[in-house]
Every structure is written in C-alpha cells, then in structure tokens.
Design goal:
This protein has about 140 residues and is mainly beta. The protein has 1 helix and 13 strands; from the N terminus they run ββββαβββββββββ. The strands form 2 sheets. Strands 1, 4, 5, 7, 8, 9, 11 and 12 form an 8-stranded mixed β-sheet that branches. A 5-stranded antiparallel β-sheet has the order 3-2-6-13-10, with no helix packed on it. Strand 2 and strand 3 form a beta hairpin.
Length: about 140
C-alpha cells in the first residue's frame, strides 16, 4: 500500500497510524510545512499549499492480510488556539493498493476529524480516521 501524505507542522510533525482490522501496520510521521495560520481560512490555504509536497509512504499488506477496510488514523492534532498562529493538520493526497489508485468512492473520513475528501485528496483538521473500503484483491467486488 502506498499513501501519499503531507501536512502542517506545529510543535511537531503530523502522525498517523495505519490499521487493518485491529492490527496496527505502521506509525508514520509526515514532514510538514511549518504552520503560521491563525484563522480557519488560513488553515485551509496552508494545508492546500503543503499538499503539493506530498511524499509517498509504504505499508506492507502482505503476510496473509486480506482486510475489508483499512483505517488511516490521524493521532496527534495540535493547535495554538483561537487567533494564535499554528495548527498541525494532515493531508492524504492519494492511496494505492497493489499499485492501483483507490477511488474517492472507497474513502470515508469520520466526523471526528472535521475533514473532507475531494478530487485533490483528504484533509484532516483534528484527530480522526480515514476509512478505506475494500476489497483489495484484484477481481473482487
């Protein structure tokens, strides 16, 4: 599995864990762009700008794993507070399983993350999860 991710740093890098069922497959820290945003509009613009520099991260799905869903869990949100500069956020530009891009219709970001998925990827503004629906074996539906 390949996850192209970016983010904004505030007092540290954004991190996410990857789960297949109850099994944690990895913990990834994303080198982000330093955050100076103090308003909601600035946070969105800053994360959009950081997304251009998304880097690929690889997770091994071999070893007999055949998950029905994969969870990408944003775990360390941090924010300076209202009107103060700095906000750590996560952006997932794309996900590939077995070299094939996962379409947006197979992605669901939970309400907890205050995120959304559009044609550019998935933005996550607070801790929460991006769920990737399978099946992930070629030829299955």
């Amino acid at each position: 599995m390949e996850i192209d991710a970016a983010g904004t740093d505030y007092q540290g890098q954004p991190r996410f864990d990857v789960f297949a069922g109850a099994k944690r497959l990895g913990e990834i820290a994303v080198q982000g762009k330093e955050s100076k945003a103090s308003t909601g509009e600035q946070r969105v613009a800053e994360l959009t700008e950081a997304a251009v520099e998304a880097q690929p991260f690889h997770i091994d799905l071999s070893g007999g794993l055949n998950p029905k869903t994969i969870e990408i869990r944003y775990v360390n949100d941090q924010r300076a507070g209202d009107g103060r500069p700095g906000d750590r956020n996560l952006f997932i530009r794309s996900i590939k399983v077995n070299g094939q891009p996962v379409p947006n219709s197979k992605l669901h970001v939970d309400e907890q993350s205050h995120g959304y998925t559009d044609d550019s990827g998935t933005a996550m503004y607070t801790n929460g999860s991006l769920w990737v629906s399978g099946p992930f074996i070629e030829g299955c539906s």
